[in-house]
Amino acid sequence: MSVIVSIIIPSYNYGFVIGETLENLLAQNFHEWEALVVDDGSLDNTEEVVAKFAARDSRIQYVRQANSGVSVARNRGFRMSKGQYIQFLDADDLLSADKLAIQVDFLERHPDVDIAYTDHLYFETDKPDIYYPDYEMNHNNWLPKIDARGFEAVNTLIYSNIAVVSSPVLRRAIVEKVNGFPELSNYTEDWEFWFNCAISGARYTFIGDDNARTLIRIHARNTSRNIQVMQAGELEFRKRIVEAVGKSSILTQDEKQKLLDRNNASTQKLYKYMMYHANLLSPGQMKLLSGLVDRKTFISYYFKSLNYKRKALFKKGR
């Protein structure tokens, strides 16, 4: 049986770049793949663009759904797929020509690895030949590079995300085991998906080959996000971490406590940052922040924030 990689591409109003993404797939040096473009209710020319590619190459399929969010679209694409290996790909991302070939070869030779992930580079859509290791273009490579499962993998993912969604190639079985992407997650769906894989026992291995990379496009569509809403999404995710760690069957009690302590410290640090930088006179912001914690904690941080802002104002006026 031929090895098949199912490439799952959710798209919402990405008709202006998805043609380049599909051309990039046609240039892959690994040919045993299928691409499923799940149009999440686009209002642009996405269907028209993808239809032209589907007519050229039977490996490309198009399906449309009512706008339901990126996780729902990825999960639908996964259910339609038939590959042993899965490559999730955002509609505006690109893959180096040898990426799939290198990752499939590695997974074929290492049957105990569930998720093989690679490095990534960011580029501005109007400057495609200039690359950066980080989204902020500060030349800071944030990517944790591990070969681990169990406590070490979970511990890494409690601290931060481990990979952009288009970096790993996964075995089909691990996606099935965690029931795909969390559909109620808010801005943390990729991170939470990787965490769910880790808490389910997946082994992650980083492949340090410069010929296997994902190229992440930076443009106006993916920079206009509400930072506070994203941070609130992380806090909600951290509540789910507590539950998942508590139920885990792959961790010892000592490991669970260490992970819960680390998660609690990260939660407190983030909430403190949000409160200290919030507009305390904004009803909308206060409603958001008060809904993330219990009333006692909110009141405590509210007055701490008032004091912090008072001191900052005093220093500024000196």
TrEMBL record:
Keywords in alphabetical order: Transferase
Entry keyword annotation includes Methyltransferase: no
Glycosyltransferase 2-like domain location: 6-118
GO terms of molecular function: transferase activity
Keyword Metal-binding belongs to the record: no
Coiled-coil intervals, chain numbering: none
Protein name from the UniProt record: Glycosyl transferase family 2
